Amino acid sequence: MSPALSDAVAAMAAALQVTDPEWRLRDERFEDRGFVANLYATTRWDELTQLPWSDSAKTAFLHEQSRLQADHYRKNYPGAALCVLEHAGAAVGRIYLYASPGEFRVMDIALLPHWRGRGHGECMLRTLMQTAAEEGRAITLHVEPNNPAQRLYARLGFTLREDKGVYHFLGWTPRSQLSTAS
Fold it and tell me: What pTM did the predictor assign?
């Protein structure tokens, strides 16, 4: 993991701990595979509601999709920060980040349903934005058009860079970079 990623992850963890010292952001481990697959399934379950599959078939399909996603991330984003978010020792979410020159890419950010909409993702993103501004980096991410997180991204100043059909490619640029670009 690059120093920029290490600094960003440490800053996000510290920001969360200000709100509650029970928060921890740590590197994902091999034994987290089950949690990661189940977390992924919670983020995609609604897409399968119309399919005439059993719940066990849907779960198996989503777990396989999670494995394929993990393989893709590890192959295409070497050196990425793959982090699990814990509260009071229990895994409750994840954030995957990649740094390239001039940019942080949020590859994935997800929380278990019970933890969504409570400001924890926003806290991490605002902290990442502060870190990115200090380093002169943009932030980019992909999100489905119907994902409720779209409202959060819009509120934080992310804008549509490209409509890819099934995904929107969003970006945020620090004001310092915006003023030098004009």
Answer: 0.90
